[in-house]
Design a protein that fits this description.
Blueprint lengths: L1 H11 L7 E5 L11 E9 L4 H16 L3 E10 L5 E8 L2 H13 L1 H12 L2 E9 L23 H12 L2 H10 L10 E4 L7
Parallel strand pairs: 1-5
Antiparallel strand pairs: 2-4, 2-5, 3-4, 3-6
Helix pairs in contact: 2-4
């Protein structure tokens, strides 16, 4: 899909400013484990956010016909505003390649979803991630979900405060902080069609 987006971006460059595309891929032993998740972040032009969300809501079925959507959220706060964040599940890299080929041939998806939305996006980031061995992906008991489930922003703040007073958590953070390259927190609000809420 990355190559398709780049070629379509070039074709649209005469009519619109092209969005930036960034991508980073996971490396190391887990890359051979099979199932992975592709995290996408779109930085939408501020004046185009409503148009973008309406088009996605209306046409998301064209994209989900090809692979499994885990979740689709708007960013409430946490860095730059006017961001959307979505996660797609793939069985392996061959599966992802098959999906990208199918999307490239899907005229309806290109014309109704991809091309109109490209003109509304400033920048896109994509990352390949794997679940850690002790983690499982499941729906939370209530219709609120962020990658770390919290009932609300206030309950998240209270939980973080409580964890910072737990000597076990403090010790674990001290041991692992040397391995941390970067960290970012975002409050995500699910779209109505998002499987995870």
């Amino acid at each position: 899909m990355l190559a398709l987006r780049r070629s379509l971006t070039k074709a649209l460059a005469a009519r619109t400013q092209a969005p930036q595309v960034c991508s980073s891929f996971a490396t190391g032993p887990r890359q051979y484990d099979g199932t992975f998740y592709e995290f996408h972040t779109y930085y939408v032009k501020p004046s185009k956010m409503n148009e973008f969300l309406e088009n996605v809501k209306k046409n998301i079925h064209l994209r989900t016909a090809h692979s499994e959507l885990v979740g689709f959220w708007t960013v409430e706060f946490g860095g730059r505003m006017n961001k959307v964040f979505h996660v797609w599940k793939y069985d392996n890299f061959a599966h992802r390649t098959e999906v990208q080929k199918a999307l490239a041939k899907d005229k309806e998806w290109r014309e109704q979803f991809l091309i109109p939305n490209l003109a509304l996006i400033d920048k896109e980031e994509s990352e390949i991630t794997y679940l850690v061995p002790w983690c499982k992906l499941e729906k939370p008991p209530k219709e609120v979900h962020v990658l770390w489930w919290n009932e609300s922003a206030d309950s998240r703040a209270a939980g973080r405060h409580q964890s910072h007073e737990d000597p076990r958590v403090v010790a674990a953070v001290r041991e692992s902080v040397n391995f941390l390259g970067s960290q970012q927190n975002m409050l995500l609000i699910p779209m109505s069609f998002s499987p995870l809420k």
